[in-house]
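Figure-free illustration: sequence to structure, shown twice.
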Amino acid sequence: MAGLQGKRILLGVSGSIAAYKAAEWTRELVKEEALVQVILTEAAERFVPALTFAALAGTSVHRDMFADDPEGMMAHINLSREADALLIAPATAQTIARLAAGMADNLLSAVVLAARIPVLICPAMNSAMFNHPATQDNIRRLRQFGYRVLQPGCGGLACGEVGDGRLPDWDEAREALLSLFAPTDLRGIKVLITAGPTREAIDPARYLSNRSSGKMGFALARTAMRRGASVTLVAGPVALADPPGMEVLRVESAKEMAECVFARSAQCRVIVKAAAVADFAVEAAAEHKIKKTGTGLQLDLVKNIDILAELGSRKGPRQILVGFAAESREHLQEGTRKLQEKNLDLIVINDILGAHSGFDVDTNQVTLLDQNGSQEIPLLSKEDTADRIWDAVCALLSSAGEKRSG
């Protein structure tokens, strides 16, 4: 099951100007085929009417703990029983204080008190209110209860001030929500991932590159983060936003990527080399733009360093090294050769000529190959493919642990 599809999300909205963003989040959840139930506080309805959320979620909105209809009489108990996760956005200073005190004086706070499901809280308020010692103490208490509390964004606020207190972006909230459902088998593991192409300059206007979009590497970074890893992502020039919550280093050339990777590789337990690094660079890039003339143009190329092979030669006894092989023919033979020659623990082989598994698509169909054999993975989204790769990595980590203890 991909992403949030089929997940039953209970969305609690409290009284903040950021409530309009919660309406947008409802639409995003429904777009991903999540099943959304909305709880509005009385103050929240002053900002966004219940009808808006009902129309977006496609279900009735819950507001009153003492509803007249028989089905609503036990809503404060039943709503959380029927959900997979409880998301509170925006969470005002008042709501945070109410939850920290364990109060149950409105439907939302009563539902939280009765909930036995993961709770994700997204604060939004004036920066002075957020940084007040009372609010900070309340947030610490909520975390002690086991609730996940996101750090609010920093920027312009509705009051005209600039500071902490903005409702986090949906991308960050989505990642946090997905992490509630993910296994924690990479917790405490430092992971280094490379993604995207490199560009090798010809002159100030032109470069050599390839068709890699970076989507597979970014999917690996996001899914590793959800599973608890500490992630560093080294990305070539791609049109993708930085995933939240991790160190992202942007590079251009193979030389820059190599320097970044080698400076950090020794500290990482798992290295996944998903980038499509250029094999060659122009020996001497022109200082000025090369003018078009009647004669042809000859470029003298030199080989770039093979980052993956160098990592294989440097690999420590506890490290797991994963490579990628984008092939157009003899896939398994080429993958086997690279697995052995580059001292890899796992190689991911995909067909770049496939209509749904080549460059710049959102799906992938790969073969995983390690020293014990190969495994065919069916056509999946790149995030689901990434999770299958992490399953294989975790099996290798577990096996390595058993060998050390033996």
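We now fold a second protein in the same way, so the two outputs can be compared directly.
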Amino acid sequence: MTDAADLRRRTAELLAAHPPATTAPLDFLRARFDAGLAWIHFPEGLGGLDAPRALQSVVDAELAAAGAPDNNPGRIGIGLGMAAPTLLRYGTDAQRRRFLRPLWTGEEVWCQLFSEPGAGSDLAALATRAVRTGSAGPEGAGDWVVDGQKVWTSGAHHARWAILIARTDPGLPKHQGITYFVCDMTDPGVDVRPLRQITGEAEFNEVFLTGVTIPDAHRLGEVGEGWRVAQTTLMNERVAIGGARTPREGGMIGVAAGAWRARPGLRTHDLHQRLLTLWVDAEVARLTGERLRQQLTKGQPGPEGSGMKLAFARLAQQISGWEVEFLAEEGLTYDDWTLRRPDGVDFTGREAGYRYLRAKGNSIEGGTSEVLLNIVAERVLGLPPEPRSDKDVAWKDLPR
């Protein structure tokens, strides 16, 4: 059984063999993965040690104290938080060996091809088609040809790989007949176009797929089981967004508290009371997220992650609104409307106006708040589900 002392010993051995001061960052990250210290709860040989997930902080603290490089989790967040746990649960041995190491080191960036113009909140209504060519032999021979359009794809302009769901049998109800693939974003027929958002930036995109060939070896899970596989991705996505590890008074509440301390001339009693309430709410959410992460086993979170994502979206919007109000005119000084293509979202290093505008998307991305409320009501609280008249109707017969 791996314990904290064993992890400290292994970390010390890694640092001795690959001193951060003299080792190239990528070489260090590769060595860390091979030593099983990347994500310690993953299996041995895949960046982990089959150790308790809660002990990851022991390794992270030792490496941070030694000045070791990180893997830029902002740029590769979709790979770390969504693709990796799905590959771990549904990938073949060959897929795990091929994809997990360069995913974790940041050598290969991932994006998510799920949402479509006509299938956002109702993702199961997706229309992108994957048609099999040739005949499927005993080893799954036969490629797939994919046509369709995806939208709101964060980081597609950086990505080498994408997790993709497409309809493979339109004669089945919408939650059936979907299959899950890994798509090479450099293949012919993949067209990535920027989408300008409310901040003026284009951190996400629309992606057109025209005759894109995907080998059957890049299918995750069984044919027609894509919705089941996608649930693993979506549940992990909500934990990644809402349950990210932060220190006490970290993230946006730390920025707001810092502004309060630095600008005594702007303080009012009402703003003080509201900030105290937000601080308590943020601390409750942080501790709840820590408990949720400790409950995760082998990357299989439950619907509770939807509640965390709901709390994150609400807090981000309330805190950024408070900050703009506190700073008054200064809070409205955001004026960068260039079509920038950032690596990710920066909620702490930018101005208040940016945070206020960008936080509006938190209640949409990763599952709208309305959909997540339904998930919490039905799957956490056990309340009766809403009536769904289209659940057993063939997708091809649904009105669109």
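Summary for the second example: The beta strands are 110-113, 129-132, 144-151, 161-167, 178-184, 190-195, 204-214, 219-220.
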